[in-house]
Write a structure and sequence with these properties.
Distance between the termini of chain B: 47 Å
Radius of gyration of chain A: 30 Å
Mean pLDDT of chain A: 74
Order of helices and strands of chain B: HEHHEEHEEHHHHHHEHHHEHHEEEEHEH
Structural class of chain B: alpha/beta
Oligomer: heterodimer
CATH architecture of the largest domain in chain B: 3-Layer(aba) Sandwich
Strand content of chain B: 15-25%
Number of strands of chain A: 0
Number of domains of chain B: 3
Largest interface: A-B, 16 and 15 residues
Order of helices and strands of chain A: HHHHHHHHHHHH
Mean pLDDT of chain B: 85
Chain lengths: 340, 476
Amino acid sequence: MSDFLEKDKHQQQILFDELETENSKEHKELTTQPILFDNQDWVAESESDIEQDDFELVNNKPNWLWRILLSLLFIVVMVESFEFFTIGFSESPMVTSLYAAILGCLIVLGGTSLVREFSGLRQFKQQQKVQSQVADIIEQNLSEGALDICNNITDKLPCDVVVEKEQEWNDIAHANYSDKELLQLYSRKVLTEVDQKAMAEVAKFSTESVVLVALSPVAIIDMFIMLWRNLRLIDKVAGLYGLQLGYWSRIRLVRQVFVNMVYAGASELIADFGTELIGADLLGKLSGRLAQGLGAGMLTARLGIKTIKLCRPIPFEEDAPKLGHVRKEILTKVKQLMVK
Amino acid sequence: MAIIDKEKFTKLKHKANDIFNRTIDQHVTLAVTGLSRSGKTAFITSLVNQLVNEGNDSQLSFFNPVHQGRFIAAKRVPQKNYHIGRFDYDAAVDALGEQPPHWPEPTKGISELRLAIRYQPKESLLKYATDTTTLYLDITDYPGEWLLDLPMLNQTYEEWSEQMLLLLSEEPRKTAADNFIEKAAQIDPFQPACENLLAELAQDYTQLLLKFRHELGLSVIQPGRFILPGELAGAPILQFIPFPGFEKLDANDYQNASDDTFIGMLRARFVEYKERVVRKFYKEHFVNFDRQIVLADCLTPLNNGPASFADLQTAIAMILENFNYGKSGLLSRLFSPKIDKLLFAATKADHVTPEQHNHLVSLLNQLVYRTKQKLNYDAIDMKTLAVASVKTTQTGKSQYQGRSVPVIQGRSLDNDKTITVFPGTVPESLPDDKFWQDNDFSFISFAPAKSVMPHECIPHLRMDQVMQFLLGDKMK
């Protein structure tokens, strides 16, 4: 390893020397004969940097081998089916027409689900694009048509959530605000409403997990319950923020949520869990199962909150939802249930 | 006679209450700082109006307590110092409510106001103690002219004279001041003083200051009481001038000059002015601030030219040197409060089209950059905003040479007619001299457009963000 490093260093040194000599040569020429550039030819340092970035992105294009393989496969299937039907219709038309009907149904079914998947994925990507756009505007105070972004978001939100708030939003004299302020205002006026609904949803699902896990006698049932409830929760929350998930987009979102949870810092974990775990411990003295249920419920809540953060088109500026906000509600509900 | 004087007891109770509120961090003294005509009175009126009328269609989305529904109500309560006038909020609101509305009268004296704001704490420790808490907000209004006296506190008569003479010997002041300097220079400093001559010179100097202020639009006007004497009008304490020709005087002779010589009397009056007028003003009103907002009107100096702009820059730097800045903790809050949040507000943001607000902000940033650099060291929170305490214009679009141009519509202050206008671009930074030779800015002043009833909220621009920055963290 050290050898390699030294070599590397050495090489760099040589390279550097070469560069220097080149430079000095040029320098000599330049001193004898000054060259005037056209002012417009000048490229600022930062601009050239950006171009480099773009270049790297272009290199990251998906693998073309896959494309060739897929298109070849498609051609073979087409040729085969064409042959099958031409021969089949001449030999036994009844059976072949049955096959044709089946194929037709398959194509329609597959096509629709494909379209749904693609639109889901596209929506998901678009949402991410909007998020990064919004983050850019808020961080760098750019002006890039925030009003259009907001209106787009409104169009996607489930309509019953925001009718009233939308009116309020439309009543604002938008021209008076900068793009950053518009986004913040939209987040405050309209999205907070959605946040509340989403949080209520999270609380509901978490409570259900608490109770169901506490009631279920076998561990494997616990696991299934958790999986089922959590997937439903992710779906619902995403839907509230205007994301219609397909299979693949859901998997992507779930993956992102889990990656996010895994990489959450220890401090966040402690902040989120510290008091809750103590609460669970206390409850544990009362009932071991309930404590298990509470732990599961907290996990569900955490997942839901992470999903909210990932799905919200405009990131929380302050006052981001925390586990503490749901915990109280869960505990009171569970207590109510226990009393009953 | 009762054992405990009732009046004394109430006073003591008030004081104890104050100390208690400061201990639990529920008392904010807000310094509304701004030169004359920068809109202090309008700002205070609007602030009080927005808080008191919250709920009546108010637009305070950026103010978290309101946004989160934790704001309960606010009202005016008796202030701390009974010997100081109460801020005439009602008169100011009435002025804005008349048909047609007009701006409140400029402030001629000091007045105070205390607001009690009731809210529900959500994050602070207080939420474990009570459901509702009250935050007390103290605001002082004073003539902006007096503010510029504060830098005199750290100067001797000699230093002050030299500084003033330096200003007078440079354009744009020089042309107007030449006569006065010549006249003042003819005096023999060690002759016994002649009261009448001194009064006459002081009168000349006052005329000069008035001219600087109103005709040239300059900001550094010292001493401020000369142009707005208040109750001191005609008193000998206001009859002194900066003495030209200190460089010709022998330092020993100057030190030994008795108070009845000319120079001695000037010095004595300066010292008296400094101690009696300026220090008193400072001690009573300028020591105990927690939060500060600096209001600056950048548009008028732009209209008046680069000299006026530079003068405003100097004036703001001079003023801000007299405040205590720094992080504030429990002890410092009780014994020597410090300003830990400072907001620079470019006022009259409604006088330009909205897309110019960013430029207005960067222009103000340029104006205060020296102060900002200095205060960065103290690690205090600073922010710059383009605001309009009272929004006087409507924004819209219009066609000009086939292009759509943003415009504003409002009632012009000069001729009382409703005009629709693109007022001009605000430069992002102060233009260079070449620009000034062929170009002039002429931003139009507007009068309040619609009359606002006392129970209605005054239309504003970004007052909610101002409140959030200045008070938001105290109302968590």
